[in-house]
Amino acid sequence: MIEEITLLGGCGRGGNREHVTRITFRMGDVISIVGPTGSGKTTLINDLELLADGNTPSGRRILINGRAPDPDFRDDPSRHPIALITQHTNFLSDLPVRDFLRIHAEIRHSRQHETDAVMGETLAFANQLTGEAVQRDSRMTELSGGQTRALLIADAVVIGNAPIILLDEIENAGIHRMRALELLRQHRKIFVFVTHDPYIPLLSDRRIVMACGAMTKVIESGAAERQLALRVRAADDWLARFRERIRGGDEFSTDDLEAVA
Amino acid sequence: MKLAICAGPATSGKTAVLRHMIRKLIGSSGTEPRASSLPGWRPAYLKIDVQFADEDEELAREFGIPTKKVYSGELCPDHCSVMVLGEALEWARKVESNILFVETAGLCLRCSPYVDGGLGIVVLEATSGMNLPRKIGPMLSLADVAVVTKIDRVSQAEREVFRARILDAAPAVRVREVNALHGIGIDPLVDRTLATPDVNGELLLRGNPPVGTCTICVGKKNIGWHAHFGVVRPLEAQTFYRGE
Q1: What's the ipTM?
Q2: Domains and CATH numbers, chain B
Q3: Is the model's pLDDT at A91 over the cut of 80?
Q4: Cβ contact A169:A203 at 8 Å
Q5: Which CATH superfamily hosts domain A1-81+162-221?
Q6: Chain B interface residues facing chain A, Cβ-Cβ under 8 Å?
């Protein structure tokens, strides 16, 4: 049973020791990783996924429940406690969605009714994140970028049931990220977001700030930041409605110009 | 002399995996061993390919180890391997190597290049799709270790299904997922190679070769099974070939 995962700092680019030498994530935590492009955010979550043991360029180490991880974790993806979903992760299969989910569910569950239940739950989860619902008869390769990402997340959370889920810039895929955050909060897991979004970090429990390949500090989100998050959310909701109108084919006039001001 | 034979479809990452194994054995270059290298191991590398390969030159440059290549041309590379492997071991001894890596691109999926007593490694890319393990016969089913590369490109679900299907086709094979970018997951492959006994005396191919003589192979071009003899098959008589 995984209770916590610890990340021991290594070196940034150029070999300087990281300021953050140790950070522990506990079940139920939501963590964000922030920093400019090229600051090492993706490398950091790759280290997590690889269960780095001083054997990656950063020299970082990962401990699970305070100890070196079971070597079997790396060998068997169905036992690997960390699911990583990046901008490059993709489905290759061209099977219909229901067949694909069944094949995955059958590896994890031997009984027919369990398989059917998790398939339904996975699809329902994915469809709360997408604009257009994923149909069970669609082929995997026909799904849009947003639908694919939504299904990847749903599959990792529900069928894969990974205790630790790493999400690399999901906001770029056009899924409802606020709903994603609310939905994910209902599951007792560790979620790590790499994000350029202003809202997700403010609502995370902590955020790791990256620069020059190194973890420079860890910020705990306080009450004031949660307040601020509500403002950001209002602005974001407004922008989202605007986006929906553009997507829906609306045209705009001077009235809208005043509304923006 | 230890012998590791590495098979796998073209571009699956065989050379990348072997490069990391060689690096673990001797460090970054032959002249400046890293602290992490394992002393006493002097690898040699033989590449068998159909018509083009430059991996032997790359590895020689990078590590300063003895390397060699053979073009199989009109022969299947695995067939070619049977022809040349004995002499290749002699060559490796002559250049004072004590571990020979052979990389071969078997193509027809009906036989495998592994020999009794040596280590058989198959390298498969996760990006080939979930059905690959069901389609490649003895190249997988007779291997000791199945190395899965390019795991970061596919969904968690497909990784799991890929592994399950490898074990379906080859229940005794050890599956190792590796990241050939960072060389992570390579250590156990090196340990396994070093734990393999030395090869001595007469070498035997591990599996049974496929039926080797057929009318088409000897040049009869007519379409339709009535025009042939020996190994024939009508449309409605499907036999399912599983390898060994």
Answers
A1: 0.77
A2: 2-195 (3.40.50.300)
A3: yes
A4: no
A5: P-loop containing nucleotide triphosphate hydrolases (3.40.50.300)
A6: 127, 129-130, 151-161, 163-164, 175-177, 179, 182-185, 188
